[in-house]
Amino acid sequence: MMLRGLLELIWIEVKVFAREPMGAIGTVLIPVVAFMGLGQFTGGALETPRTGGGLHLNLPVFAAVLISINTVLSLVTIISIYREAGILKRLRATPLRSYTILTAHVIVKLLLTAMTLAILLLVGKRYYPAGMHVRVISFTVALMISTVSILSIGFIIASMVPTARFAQPIGSAILYPMLGLSGLFFPISALPPTLHSVASVLPLTYAVSLLNGIWQGDTWSAHFGDVGALIIVFVISTAISTKVFRWE
Amino acid sequence: MTASTTSHPVIQVSGFRKTYGRTVAVDEVSFSVNDGEIFGLIGPNGAGKTTTMECVEGLRTPDRGTISVLGLDPFRDVYKLQDRIGVQLQQAQLQKRIKVWEAMHLWATLYKRKVADGDRLLEQLGLSEKRNSWFMTLSGGQKQRLFIAMALINDPEVVFLDELTTGLDPQARRAIWELVRGIRQRGKTVLLTTHLMEEAERLCDRVAIIEHGRIIDMDTPENLVDRHCPERTVLLATSAPVDEQCFRAIPQVEDVIRQDLKFTIRGRGDDLVTGVIQCLSENHIRVTDFRTVLPTLEDVFLKLTGHSIRD
Predict the structure, then answer these.
(1) CB B276 within 8 A of CB B247
(2) Which of B288, B196, B193 is nearest to B237 (CA)?
(3) Which residue in A220, A225, A31, A232 sits closest to A141, CA to CA?
(4) For chain A, give me the number of helices (H) and strands (E)?
(5) How far apart are CA B236 and CA B242, in angstroms?
(6) Which tens digits make up the pLDDT trace of A167-225?
(7) Interface test with A, best of B51, B91, B106 (most A CBs within 10 A)
(8) Which region among A15-19, A190-194, A206-210, B78-82 has the lowest average model confidence (pLDDT)?
(9) Whole-structure pTM over 0.90, yes or no?
């Protein structure tokens, strides 16, 4: 019975999301356009040339991480809007379990992630003549695990955001700086020791390591550590969220 | 319409207290709502009405005291309770772009019990034409009617209405009052909050007046008026000059003000009006206008708190 409620809520959220063009464009198009644009810049190569400073970027992984962060920002925004408008509270005043309401949002965001990734892979076929040879299922699963883990942090961020207006800026201010230390642009090993230890507690670091590895054809067993770290982040964040999450 | 003493209580609240940090929002609140009655929590904004109601609905946890609704503990049995009650929240919204029928359909799937016919509810509430409209395009009155429809979708035994008509124009307000009376006619119990004394007077079988988180009195609106504001005023005009002394002779009369042919007669007790009529008839006084002014809950509130509810 409550499964019916969950499915109905997911379906409604998908429809409502599709009816708001700006939200859909912002969340889906930005990573795709960035990916296409960078492809023009590198002349169709999937990786930027290695420079003396060690700056190096795997474009599909970069785009995938962008998808993940955008998804989380969109979750933080929608949760704070729904809280401010009393929608969360109104749903809570039904027999629907509180966690079902939030689970519906997580699932909608994962569907969005999968859809954006699919578009990205299709675009890649066209804009990157060298071709994108990747185990699609494995890469998708890796991105899903990463996104779920970061989404769980999103709920903590959503609790910290005072009003819906601050959702996007505060979420960005927390998530984007993590990118710099995540190993996406510079290898972690090239960082000074202090930043090195900071990087080792940031969940994005493990997400990037996992996605990079799977992209390059590593086996899952080589990345047990990354998956384990992401699961720990998920468990801890969810535990914190149940304490600090604000419904109104 | 007054609740009989034999009907059993559907809601029982006793010694209820709720604090937010150091602020005591509600303290020592006790009341019970009988089966089939409309019970109103009335008082100014910030008095603790919504806090009380939300604890009864199971949305908040009381710090002290016991609450029982339909024999259930709103905190422990929250999901069981919410399956059997209907709730309209103050200032709630829905997704901007959810359609009216989608909201009804979603709500219908959330309840375990057999649900009411959503389309019929929309029809009864005059929303059939808005079935395919987005929530954001509805007027204030239409939104409130939709929230009432959603509160009734599970054919609830108790309906909670929090500041139902705030922000609506008088016409929409009257239409909503009619709907609430309709809910009672279906045999449901209603607990509502309002800061509009007229609304309380017209809708509620019994009211509890809340001020600074405490109930200061509780009864039927009529009894509250009789108890706290026994003053009555008769306004009349005569066709020929009359000596005001004949009115002053009536035992209940306390004051008579005369302006040419117009009289304002003040006194207390229900017998005042009878006394004035008898006096007119005995003295064969021809009257061209006759009105009585009765105190309202508004006056009761002013008397009990020393300030108007809108202050």
Answers:
(1) yes
(2) B288
(3) A220
(4) 11, 0
(5) 11
(6) 989 999 999 988 888 888 888 888 888 888 888 889 999 999 999 999 888 999 999 99
(7) B106
(8) A190-194
(9) no
Count of domains for chain A:
1
Tokens of A109: 């965001």
Q: Is A86 on the interface with B (CB under 8 A)?
A: yes
Q: A23 — contact with chain B (CB < 8 Å)? A: no
What number of helices (H) and strands (E) belong to chain B?
11, 13
- When pLDDT is cut at 50, 70 and 90, the band that residue B1 belongs to is very low
Contact in structure between A38 and A59 (CB atoms under 8 Å)? yes
Please give the structure tokens belonging to residue B205: 């079988």
Find the DSSP H helices in B71-134: 78-84, 100-109, 118-124
Counting other chains too, the contacts that B216-223 makes at CB distance below 8 Å and 24 or more residues apart are B216/B304, B216/B305, B217/B300, B217/B304, B218/B31, B220/B2, B221/B297
**Parent domain of A50:** 2-244
Q: In what order do the strands lie in the sheet with B253-259?
A: B253-259, B262-268, B231-238, B287-293
Chain A residues inside the 8 Å CB shell of B102: 12, 15
| Local structure of B78: helix, strand or coil | helix
CA–CA gap between residue B97 and residue B271 (Å, rounded): 59
pLDDT digits (tens, 9 = 90+) for A80-125: 999 999 999 999 999 998 889 999 999 999 999 999 999 988 888 8
**Long-range contacts of residues A159-166, Cβ cutoff 8 Å, at least 24 apart:** A159/A241, A159/A244, A159/A245, A159/A246, A160/A244, A161/A76, A161/A80, A163/A80, A163/A84, A164/A77, A164/A80, A164/A81, A164/A83, A164/A84, A166/A80
Partner residue facing A93 (CB), from B57, B91, B93: B57
Contact B151, B159 (CB under 8 A): yes
Contact (Cβ atoms closer than 8 angstroms) between residue B276 and residue B238: no
